[in-house]
């Protein structure tokens, strides 16, 4: 049986203190292998390959392409090594070596000023977003609203996904799903093999022995704790993101990969295709399954800094961009940020600093005021490095000038 990735990891986690130890734990001597046979192999040694789109054995997950159709010019994003002072570059190099991270990119004022990779990863690899995918889904919701596929985010789930009639989410509004205020008593725990988090992961990637589809799972779902009235309290919930993906599929009458490709991914200057994990029932992982190159994620960040516009095309409605990344609800600073917008963490009370964030240290942090973007794809097994990432982000945002 394909067990929860993170519950298997937990048994092998040790304290990591330097680059050599990272490399040893993550399987450098074995060439960062991808041929793990679950659950017999040491999971950690296959983690780097797994999160760069190298699928392991005994995995029923389906990966679907998010096409870049070449309809707009690729946004140039080449490293400019003349910008950073050598002392600053050395500081960032040293920091990156200490990070359990595969890639680090920094863009400031539209220029790529730092780019580095380790664990034998390269710029053309496709990296798994984990929960950064949630922010991608929210952008697609905004586009669907603009195009009239979704009449209002105040509509309940029942209007677009009537097949969830037995689910506790049936009358929850799209807005409350976006804000993680559904009221449903979901419990987030990525490490327990029996948690809501592990179960929904197995269902959406096709590796559940109990549930054949997302609809079946959600109709039988029993919240792990007491539910509240919707709209009152923030509660981080992977089910919410997956239901939003279902809303998009039904409302647009298209696979989400196709809708996102046609309306966003191919319109923002990306260079390569993306991909999206799901199961063989047509469900996508709305909470965790998107992949792209680091530079293409940074290109999306540049569009967001420009209020959703690329070249002369308003790809994502500017009012949606403003709202998605605004501090709409009080969240949990210990889990990701002090505030939450639409499927996105917000780091300050005015919405200038926000981030796509994912398990193991996947992040795109943005400071709109200083036009700074930090992208990193981590393998931080205990999620211990977030504090250092924020310090690096603040340093780059506040101390480095780029004209």
Question: How would you summarize this macromolecular structure in one to three sentences?
Answer:
It is built from 14 helices and 14 strands. The protein is an alpha+beta fold and 403 residues long. A hairpin with a 2-residue loop joins strand 7 and strand 8 (313-314).
Could you give the topology of this structure?
Layout: H1 5-10, H2 19-25, H3 47-50, E1 62-66, H4 86-98, E2 101-108, E3 111-117, E4 127-128, H5 132-146, H6 157-160, H7 174-178, H8 196-204, H9 214-220, H10 238-252, H11 256-263, E5 274-278, E6 290-292, H12 294-305, E7 309-310, E8 313-314, H13 318-324, E9 329-332, E10 337-340, E11 345-346, E12 353-358, E13 362-367, E14 372-378, H14 386-399
Antiparallel strand pairs: 1-5, 2-3, 2-14, 4-6, 5-6, 7-8, 9-10, 10-11, 11-12, 12-13, 13-14
Helix pairs in contact: 5-10
Chain-averaged pLDDT: 91
Secondary structure class reads alpha+beta
CATH homology-level superfamily: DD-peptidase/beta-lactamase superfamily
Shape: globular
Spatial order of the strands in the main sheet? 3-2-14-13-12-11-10-9
- The CA-CA distance between the termini, in Å, is 54 Å
Supply the number of helical segments: 14
CATH topology: Beta-lactamase
* Rounded Rg: 20 Å
Give the low-confidence spans.
1-17
Please estimate the helix content: 25-40%
Strand count, sense and barrel status of the largest sheet are: 8 strands, antiparallel
| Beta-strand fraction estimate | 15-25%
| Domain unit count | 1
Provide the succession of SSEs: HHHEHEEEHHHHHHHEEHEEHEEEEEEH
> Can you tell me the CATH architecture?
3-Layer(aba) Sandwich
CATH class: Alpha Beta
Number of strands: 14
